[in-house]
Amino acid sequence: MPDKEKNQLAGEFPFVPQQVRAQQKRHALIESGRCLFIKNGYSQTTAKDIAANAGVAIGTFYRYFSDKRQLLRSLFEEQLEMLIPPEPSWVHGDPEILLAALLEKHYKRLDEIGIHRVLPELLPKDPELSEILIEARRKLHSKFLSSLRQIEEMGLTWKDLDLDTVAWTVLMIVENGPQKTEYSDNEINYAEIAKVICRIVFPPEILVRLQNKEG
Fold first, then answer.
1. The predicted structure's pLDDT at residue 82
2. What is the pLDDT of residue 178?
3. 125 and 206 in one domain?
4. What average pLDDT values come out for the chain (215 residues) when binned by 10 residues?
5. Residues 68 and 165 in one domain
6. Which terminus, N or C, of the chain has the lesser number of Cβ atoms within 10 Å?
7. pLDDT of residue 11
8. Residue 55: which CATH number?
9. Is residue 142 part of a domain?
10. Predicted local distance difference test score (pLDDT) of residue 4
11. Calpha distance 123→22 (Å, rounded)
């Protein structure tokens, strides 16, 4: 199998639409599946439900997807990048303000997509999907770590903290931010989350210096 096919989440489709109208039908099916997976759960959603909600015949569904799992993985293929937290910029402005803005944009985008809500149901049942997300997290961790090492070379990080652990901690905080409301009556405060992360990354005097430099 060519490398390109190995990297595809959903594999080869029975039919790949080229015409605009056909692409619109396929997109409508994917969007229908996304809405129903969120509303009813993956297990309780059928291909027939997805087709009916999209306003197409069940035969149209099977023209583009072999089953609902293939549709789901195609959905993740399209939206995986939007599910992954953004890589922060540490020194091009006030780190807390920049990070808070990034977090707000990311969490609002997650809420609009909504598909992350079905992951707890899906991952235990789909090892391949689980591995895809794990690999995406590995890559993001590697990017976080690389950016931390760059500012370490500038003398901006804690000297007694392991940067690999710092990168992992930051990633865990960012990924789990949307779950805060499950354990607290308070809404997500992006500035407070950014403040905690920056306190982990920077010693106090360095953080003040960066903020004053911006000011």
1. 79
2. 79
3. yes
4. 40 58 90 93 94 95 92 84 81 92 91 83 84 87 94 96 97 86 83 96 96 70
5. no
6. C
7. 44
8. 1.10.357.10
9. yes
10. 39
11. 31
Domain count, the chain: 2
Angle, helix 95-113 to helix 68-83, in steps of 10 degrees: 160
Q: Where do we find the tokens 């865990």?
A: 172
Residue 81 class from Cβ within 10 Å (0-12 exposed, 13-18 middle, 19+ buried)?
exposed
**pLDDT value, residue 18:** 67
> Locate tokens 């982990």: which residue?
200
Task: Tell me what pLDDT residue 76 has.
Answer: 84
CA angle 103, 134, 178 (to 5 degrees): 30
Burial code of 194-213, b = ≥16 C-beta within 10 A, e = fewer? bbebbeebbbeebbeebbee
pTM of the full structure: 0.75
Give the tokens for residue 133: 């997300």
Ramachandran angles phi, psi of 9, nearest 5°: -70, -40
User: What does the alpha-carbon distance between residue 119 and residue 200 come to, in Å, rounded to a whole number?
Assistant: 28
Nearest residue to 84 via CA among 138, 38, 46: 138
Residue 1 within any structural domain of the chain: no
Give Cα separations from 161 to 80, 89, 202 (angstroms).
Answer: 31, 20, 10
